[in-house]
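Please check this one:

***
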Amino acid sequence: MNALNSLFGVSLLILGSIVGYFLRQTIVSKRTKSLEQVIKKQLEESKAKVADIVLKAQEKAADLLEKSTIEEKERKTQLLKLEERLLRREEILDQESAGLKTKDQQNQQTAKELEETKVEISSLRNEAIIQLEKVSGFSKDEAREVLLKDVREQYQKELSQSLEKLEKDKKEVLEKKSLEIMTTAIQRLSRSHVANVTTTNFDLKSEDLKGKIIGREGRNIRTLERLTGVELIIDETPDSLVISSFDPVRREIARLTLEKLIADGRIQPAKIEEKVEEAKQEINKRTIEEGEKAASELGIYNLPKELVQLLGRLYFRFSFGQNVLLHSIETAHLSSMIASELGIKVEVAKKAGLLHDIGKSIDYEVEGSHVELGRKILKKYGIEEDVIKAMESHHEDYPFATSESFVVAAADAISAARPGARRDSLENYIKRLEELEKVAVAFKGVKNAYAISAGRELRVFIEPEKVDDFGALQLAREIALKIESELKYPGEIKVTVIRETRAVEYAK
């Protein structure tokens, strides 16, 4: 029974497979016919589209052909017109060329005639010169010398008088204007001047403090002198002592140290070292304060902090007894006023006047002139080039490159030369006057020379037999140039050459 069932199942499976195969064949056949119909339909649609595209392309080609034909006709027309214009221009050029050839021939003929005329004129001129030489008895060169000599003799006196008058008028105008500007600037700026010395007096509250300052076996005073670099002079003067040193910074440190020690009451080597350090720190702070104060007074607020500190150090620098910072401030004020009167850069002149001696803040520590050191400092901190040019010439180490440089030099000389500003010995003053007179007497024809007006004027008397009026003008110029080249002086020196003839007779 089981075997029959199995056989029946197998038979059904085979029969199902056969039926499935035929069903698949039928479905495939139907699908194939449907696909063929679709493809056929698409081919027919494609043929219709192609035909439409071809038709449109033919129409477009016809339009392009028509347009190209029209454009070709237009180009041919333009080429014909251009050819006609070129032909006309060629005819005109031929005509102009023929005209130029004719003019060239005429010019050549004219040049030939001019050359012949030139030769003829030269020949006539030579004949005339020969005739003149025969009549006058002089050659051409001799006649020229005689004529020049006559003209020189005739007009020399008038020329010398005219030159003298022009130079006098020019100097009078310039001197009057410069005096107005200088006196206005000096009048507007009035400052007191106190010359510095190398000692500082220190007042004591009682005479007993002298013993404490000296200390046991002098150990306190020795320590103080060693740390500050000054000399303490304690004598019989009541209630005071003297601090001596060429360096004002050292004197100020010693003075502050003494004030702190006396206020503290304990005076001994360890405490002295502590107070000296405190004094040095106070000096550094004061240096910055003095620099800021100077810049603020002048309205200059764009200086680097390091430059302000160097500027403050000038408060403790002295030149010929004159405080350098006060001198710099005064120079800045004067430079500003003079520049304002002259209509040049006021701010440049003012800043250059303030910084013109900045090199003196370090010239004790570094080799080199204060002008050169100042230039390096200002360049290092980015100060404007026109300010550097204005300050570098105040001692004529560098040429005067700008108008402001003349102003700063003049302001520096005014500040240094005003009464009471600096200490100058009588010997140096007399020596300078003697050197002025020696310069003038060394010239030939000079009888006497006198320096007057505190050396601002040199009067020279000459021998009229040896020097004429024209030579007097030349002599004044030569003496002035020699003074400029050999001597150094503030401001300017007026050289006056006097030539006079005296006739003396006695009635008996």
Remarks:
- The mean pLDDT is 78.
- The first strand starts at residue 199 and ends at 203.
- The two ends are 205 Å apart (CA to CA).
